[in-house]
Specification:
Elements lengths: L2 H4 L3 H13 L3 H5 L7 E2 L8 E2 L1 H12 L16
Antiparallel strand pairs: 1-2
Length: about 80
């Protein structure tokens, strides 16, 4: 079962993403992104798109073993 199947709401997505990156499971983190997703790797950075570019950015981020938290104020459904 993929990580994306385990996340059913925004808070769970953050928890699954954090766990995957902390454990170095970049493929599981990448599975949370839509094929046409755009990723901003850090504040004020240029957005990147494409699975290869997003995977590379997530790999660099995973190397830091990040501990992420969330404070969701609202959800926008597109």
């Amino acid at each position: 079962m993929s990580s994306s199947a385990l996340a059913t709401n925004p808070a769970e997505v953050i928890a699954v993403l954090s766990s995957a990156l902390d454990d170095g499971r970049v493929a599981d983190a990448l599975a949370l992104y839509e094929p046409d997703a755009v990723f901003v790797p850090q504040p004020k950075a240029q957005p990147i798109s494409g699975r290869t570019a997003i995977q590379a950015a997530l790999s660099q981020f995973a190397a830091l073993h990040p501990q992420m938290t969330s404070n969701i104020r609202g959800v926008v459904v597109a």
